[in-house]
Specification:
- The protein is α+β, with helices and mostly antiparallel strands.
- It has a single domain (12-462), classed as 2-Layer Sandwich (Creatine Kinase, Chain A, domain 2).
- The chain contains 15 helices and 14 strands.
- The chain has helices spanning 12-34, 64-71, 98-118, 147-159, 199-211, 213-220, 236-243, 267-276, 293-299, 333-351, 363-376, 392-410, 415-431, 435-446, 450-463, and strands spanning 44-54, 76-78, 84-88, 92-93, 123-125, 165-170, 174-179, 191-197, 225-226, 229-230, 306-312, 318-324, 381-383, 389-391.
- The strands form four sheets. Strands 1, 2, 3, 4, 5, 8, 11 and 12 form an eight-stranded antiparallel beta sheet that branches.
Length: 474
């Protein structure tokens, strides 16, 4: 959850003082890592889910403030647009029946949200990009009234010297337009998977997360349409990268896959935050340096597709998490928790190998694989370990699914849990039916009726069945 700030206007001295505090807190974190001050207890897993509110005509419903008032739940918060909400899952120990507990919590929360939304004449849709979204839905008038969002908009365009953003995506169709605020970001909604890690394993888990990002986005793709155009299988990837671009050097892009693996320590990413990225929100806070408040606020304005996070437990002991951000929202709870199972198992198996698997594939190939999979989905052929070039579907079936089983079993996940959740991935892979492919198949059968597509998607979402079992009825 992004931290709210007190105001949207800053002085030059605010930037100077914030930079000084950021340097102090970065040095403190480095000292803590060297002195083994961070939590090294057993792993936990959690999630964040972004969802769209839609009205009976499947148009965006700007009702998030009323929804939040009706829910009165600190784990459900506003997002950038007034038609988006964010649901945060409570972390669970990565053992036993944890996946089913995550699923039960998410299902119960979504049901509660839907009940309140229904009283407002709205429903919740979990999808990477809402098919009915149009440019007129995304002006500043749709921005949730939070100082954080207004300040982000102002600072991004200050870095751009008020030059408009340029959105260019070439897929099956082509989309090119100019934009004058950051509201394009609100078009994309995701299911972000969190894994708490020890300091010793953080760099390996971070690298393994990058390594599997391509296959993960291929098997989870759910965002083929934007403004009625058929683009990438996971159009959310290029959309988000271009939606908040500061327009400067590529090393300062706020959303990126990164430029290398971590070599020795996860601390390298926090040093890069300090050295490379201009400060966007120089909100000065009253907490002691040990709260790392300025470090966390700055890190929260750099949206790496795999992002290290700092958190604190109830006793204020700091811990590290890796946030895997490549997975879109939806289609159903079953799909999303299955996606989490694949990620959590595969990444832990890869990170636990004696020989780091990232030493077996150059970073430039891992990066290229990510974008190829986002563009082509399960049709992609990508570089894999030891120089192999393989269909991503084969990598998933023959390498990553077995790794995920080993990783989950090594974490003492109950065998029926492993079989159930990874079985969903296996059957999705066997059918070739991702969310993106279901959406395209519906359009092939019924025509490019984005309202009809969204309505049919919502009907199928309501069944709770995983997407490979969905019907194509209109």
């Amino acid at each position: 959850m992004g931290r709210e700030i007190a105001g949207a206007h800053f002085t030059e001295q605010d930037f100077v003082e914030f930079a000084a505090r950021l340097r102090e807190e970065t040095a403190l974190l480095e000292h803590w890592l060297e002195a083994d001050r961070l939590d090294d207890s057993a792993p936990t897993a959690g999630f964040e889910l972004e969802a769209c509110l839609v009205d009976p005509q499947m148009q965006p419903a700007p009702q998030v403030e009323s929804l939040l008032a009706g829910l009165n739940d600190p784990l459900i918060v506003a997002e950038l647009a007034t038609f988006n909400a964010e649901i945060n899952g409570a972390p669970v120990a990565l053992t036993g029946d944890c996946l089913s507990r995550l699923a039960a919590e998410l299902a119960a929360t979504l049901e509660r949200c839907d009940r309140v939304a229904a009283g407002l004449g709205a429903r919740l849709l979990t999808i990477g990009i809402l098919p009915t979204l149009r440019p007129q839905h995304l002006g500043l008038s749709a921005m949730t009234p939070r100082q954080r969002y207004r300040a982000l908009n102002d600072q991004i365009f200050a870095l751009r010297h008020d030059r408009p953003l340029k959105l260019e995506i070439a897929g099956r169709d082509r989309l090119a337009l100019e934009w004058h605020d950051v509201m394009l970001e609100a078009a994309s909604t995701s299911f972000q998977i969190h894994l708490k890690v020890t300091p010793d394993e953080a760099a390996r888990v971070y690298n393994a997360s990058k390594l599997i990002s391509g296959p993960m986005v291929a098997i989870t793709a759910n965002s083929p349409y934007l403004f009625g155009r058929d683009l990438w299988d996971e159009t959310r990837i290029p959309l988000f990268e271009q939606a908040v671009s500061p327009g400067g050097p590529i090393l300062q892009e706020r959303v990126s896959f990164g430029f290398r693996y971590a070599e020795r320590s996860i601390m390298e990413t926090f040093r890069a935050n300090l050295d490379r990225y201009p400060i966007l929100l120089p909100q000065l806070m009253t907490e002691a340096p040990q709260a790392l408040a300025h470090l966390c606020l700055h890190n929260g304005t750099i949206w790496r597709w795999n992002r290290p996070l700092l958190g604190f437990d109830a006793e204020r002991r700091p811990h590290l998490r890796i946030e895997h951000r490549v997975v879109p929202a939806g289609p159903t709870v079953s799909d999303m928790i299955a996606n989490a199972a694949l990620y959590l198992g595969a990444v832990r198996d890869l990170a636990g190998e004696k020989e780091p698997p990232e030493s077996r594939i150059p970073f430039v190939q891992t990066r290229a694989a990510f974008y190829s999979c986002a563009r082509e989905g399960l049709n992609a052929e990508i570089h894999w370990l030891d120089g192999a070039i393989l269909p991503v579907a084969r990598i998933l079936g023959e390498d990553l699914l077995p790794r995920a089983r080993r990783g989950l079993r090594a974490a003492d996940i109950d065998p029926p849990e492993v079989a159930h959740w990874l079985g969903i991935i296996e059957r999705r892979l066997g059918s070739g039916r991702t969310g993106a492919r279901w959406q395209r198949a519906w359009v092939e059968r019924h025509g490019a009726d984005m309202t009809g597509l969204a309505a049919a998607y919502l009907d199928q979402q309501g069944t709770g069945r995983p997407v490979h079992e969905w019907a194509l009825a209109g």
